[in-house]
Amino acid sequence: MKNNVLISLTSIQWQDGEKSETELLTKAKFVHENGFDVISYEDTSATGFDGSVTTIKVQGCKNASIVREGTANSVLSLEIGRKHFCQYGTPYGNLQIGVYTHTINNTIDSDGKLYLKYTLDLNSSYLSDNEIIMTVQDTN
Description:
mainly beta, 74% strand, globular
């Protein structure tokens, strides 16, 4: 079981044919509990959510959740082949968005990698395709 780790996080968003990419290298907390890998880190201005804490909880390659708390609040539930309706907080109020998960590839235990790919929609209208590529490294 790891505790203090360094994560490299690349977030890619495709919207209207345009690709935007953010990268973050930061310290995080990592635990493996009750069959879940849990990674928690403080967001920065690089992610656009300064003042928030993001927690990614993954169970094997079956399902995951991305919870952001603080200045921005949201809960995204990801499950292969299922669409979930989730709350996404913005400075202008909460939105209900649809999340359809394409891929969860969790190999944190073997090589420290996590890959998530999902599509977001708003009011059943396509919003964006998203990818999260994370590498977890032990700092000990």
